[in-house]
């Protein structure tokens, strides 16, 4: 628990805001170096929650009078819960002036394992060290990982414990990813007067009205990154298990109400998650499909959450549509 803002203006009353961060260590994640990145997989996941405390004096002692956690009912719930009523934010439904598609989505469940006897689809999977030799002006993927590690949770004395250089959105997942890839070197494009266009992506410090739709809305962001950024490749196209090829510094989008299984679903991508880790199979580290992938995101604030715990949050549901873009 880290204390942030403290208000002592009241007589005999102190109001304080604190950030609670919990680490849950994995029991069986290996420490095998991932040949795709040269990194070892995360060994724990993190959960962060803000609390407001009111303390009062009584008989010369300070006592906690009340505590209020900041629970966002509209946000993505913890992986152990399910909210089948959650829909996309309103501006996620807008893809103005464009017939450009979003990345392909699939309902992949588990990918083939090394001992399955299957022949893996290696298309679209290239270790970053090899890829860097072929890409002009590549993104700084290590800087992206460092930014996500720094700003995934609440940091006292910041704006709602987020990076104070950026405003916070009610559904902050895509805003957070935009900050990450901006830190990686993706150049902003566009101006406030064409903020609704699909081929622009930028942040306006003056307010939401001066910021591109693609900055903070999941579906719009996916359309931009897929069609216009010049720094992504679709991992799912041509491979229904392609999400399991994602590497650290890639991005995933999910449609919680994928239309083929939910005729009432609106069909848009609802949530953006940054890939912050990958566990290779120890018995075959070059197998293109990961044993586990780890995700970091806002709303709610989570760090290195296993993909399986998010993907199968409804008890191995095959309902949701997943998309993955490799960044380079």
UniProtKB/TrEMBL annotation:
Biased composition (Basic and acidic residues): 97-107
Entries under Pfam families matching the protein: Amidase_6
Name assigned to this protein: Putative amidase domain-containing protein
Extent of Polar residues compositional bias: 110-124
Ranges for domain Putative amidase: 142-310
PANTHER family: EXPORTED PROTEIN (PTHR40032:SF1), EXPORTED PROTEIN-RELATED (PTHR40032)
Positions of region (Disordered): 64-130
């Amino acid at each position: 628990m880290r204390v942030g803002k403290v208000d002592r203006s009241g007589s005999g009353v102190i109001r304080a805001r604190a950030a609670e961060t919990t680490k849950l260590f994995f029991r069986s994640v290996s420490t095998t170096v991932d040949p795709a990145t040269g990194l070892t997989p995360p060994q724990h996941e993190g959960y962060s929650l803000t609390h407001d405390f009111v303390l009062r004096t009584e008989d010369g002692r300070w006592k906690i009078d009340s505590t209020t956690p900041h629970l966002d009912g509209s946000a993505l719930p913890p992986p152990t819960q399910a909210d089948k009523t959650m829909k996309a934010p309103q501006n996620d439904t807008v893809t103005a002036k464009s017939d450009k598609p979003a990345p392909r989505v699939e309902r992949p469940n588990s990918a083939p394992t090394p001992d399955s006897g299957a022949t893996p689809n290696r298309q679209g999977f290239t270790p970053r060290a090899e890829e860097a030799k072929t890409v002009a002006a590549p993104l700084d993927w290590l800087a992206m990982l460092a930014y996500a590690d720094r700003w995934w949770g609440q940091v006292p004395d910041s704006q709602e414990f987020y990076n104070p250089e950026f405003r916070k959105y009610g559904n902050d997942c895509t805003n957070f990813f935009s900050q990450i890839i901006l830190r990686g070197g993706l150049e902003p494009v566009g101006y406030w007067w064409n903020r609704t266009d699909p081929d622009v992506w930028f942040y306006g410090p003056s307010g939401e009205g001066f910021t591109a739709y693609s900055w903070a809305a999941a579906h719009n962001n996916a359309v931009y990154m897929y069609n216009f950024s010049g720094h992504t490749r679709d991992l799912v196209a041509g491979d229904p298990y392609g999400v399991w090829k994602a590497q650290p510094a890639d991005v995933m989008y999910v449609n919680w109400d994928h239309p083929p299984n939910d005729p009432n679903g609106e069909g848009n991508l609802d949530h953006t998650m940054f890939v912050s880790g990958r566990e290779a199979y120890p018995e075959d580290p070059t197998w293109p499909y990961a044993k586990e992938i780890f995700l970091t995101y806002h709303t709610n604030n989570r760090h290195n959450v296993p993909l399986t715990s998010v993907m199968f949050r409804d008890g191995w549901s095959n309902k949701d549509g997943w998309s993955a873009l490799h960044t380079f």
